[in-house]
Amino acid sequence: MEQPAVVWDPALLGYDLGGEHPFNPVRLQLTIRLATELGVLEGVPLLVPEPASDTELLRIHAGEYLEAVKQAPMAGWDVGHGLGTSDNPVFSGMHDASALVVGSTLLGARKIAEGEARRAVNIAGGLHHAMRDHAAGFCVYNDCAVAISWLLDHGFERIAYIDTDVHHGDGVQAAFYDDPRVLTVSLHQHPFTLWPGTGYSSETGNGAADGTAVNIPLPPRTHDPGWLRAFHAVVPSLVEAFEPQLLVTQCGVDSHEEDPLADLSLSVDGHRTIYTALRELAERYAGGKWLAVGGGGYQLIRVVPRSWTHLLATVLDRDVKPETPIPPGWADMVRKAAPRAELPTEMSDGADTAYRPWGDGDDDPVDIAIRDTRRAVFPLHGLDPDDPRD
C-alpha cells in the first residue's frame, strides 16, 4: 500500500493572526515536534506545499473577496468582508499565508487523486468557516471546500465530508448545500450555546441535495461516550448509504474539556478514538481514501500537540499507545518557552471512551439530538430513523 502523504512546511506558521489571538500557529510547531520525537514521522517525507492559485481559490471564493484579502494589509482595518475584526485581524502577507494553507490541503488531495497515496493529512488545514465573500471564525480561505471542489473535477463524483470540530462546519456546508455529490456531516456543540449559531438538525440541504447536509448538535458538557454514541448512531449508516469514493475529515480538537473557547468535554483519548473510527469508515466505505485536515484547538500545549500527533499516527497506521510517556526532549523545550505551563505526562488523559450503542432505552439530551438528526435525514436515504439497526 502507498505510504500516506503528510504535508508540512514551517512556512505554514506564517498564518499568524498575531498578538494574543487564540489561533496561535505554535500549536502546529509543537505537534510536529512531538510527533517527530515519538518516531511517528520517522522515514516519512514531509511534502512541501505551494500557495493555491487564484484560479483554485475562485472555485469557492468571489473575485472581489480575493482582491480585498490582497489589499487588506495596505488598506488598513476598515476593509469589510469580515476582515479587520477581532476574529480575523489583518496581518502582513495574509493572502499568501492563507493561499499556502489551501495549497497544502490541495497537495494532499492531489496525491490521492493521482494514486500516489490513499491517505493524506495536513494539520495546518481545516479553515472551515470561511465563506464565499467573507472571512469568519479565524478563517480567511476555506481549504476544505476548495479541495473538495477540486476533487470533484478530478475523478471523484461522491465525497463525504465529516467535521468533528466543536464549531459547526458552516462554510463547507454552505459551499455544497445545493450539491448532491457532497455529503457534509458536522458534529458540534449546540448552536443555541456556541458561535456560529448554525448547524441545527433541520438544516438538511436544498433541492436535489436535500439529505446531504447532516448536523448533530450536541449539548454542552457532552463527554466522550456521549459524543461517540451520537457519531455511531448517525454517521456510519449515512456514509454507507451515500457510497462515497473519498472521505474528507476536519479534525478540530476544540471539543476537549480544557479548551477555553467552547464547552464540550472530550479528552485526548476521545480524539484518538474518533480518528480510529474515521479510518475505519474510510476503509469500509470509501475504498480507503481519506484526506484529513486540522481545524480548531486552543489549549496549545496540553491538548493540540497530543491529539494531532494521534491523528498523524492514525493516518500513518503508527498508532501511539495511550500510556506512552511524553518525550523528555519535547517537555524540556516547552518548559524553556513556557516555564509556568502545566505539561501532560503521557499521550492519554486516562479517560474512559466506552459507549453504549444508541437504542438501548436512554433518554438524555444526547439521545434527543440523535433522534432529531436521524428523523431529519434518515428517510431521505431510505433508512428507518427509529430502527437501531439502521
UniProtKB/TrEMBL annotation:
GO BP annotations listed: acetoin catabolic process; epigenetic regulation of gene expression
Statement: the UniProt record of this protein carries the keyword Nuclease: no
Location of the region described as Disordered in the Swiss-Prot/TrEMBL record: 341-363
KW Ribosomal protein (keyword) present: no
GO terms assigned for molecular function: histone deacetylase activity
Pfam families associated with the record: Hist_deacetyl
Record's keyword terms, sorted: Acetoin catabolism
Entry's family note: Belongs to the histone deacetylase family.
Protein name per its UniProtKB record: Acetoin utilization protein AcuC
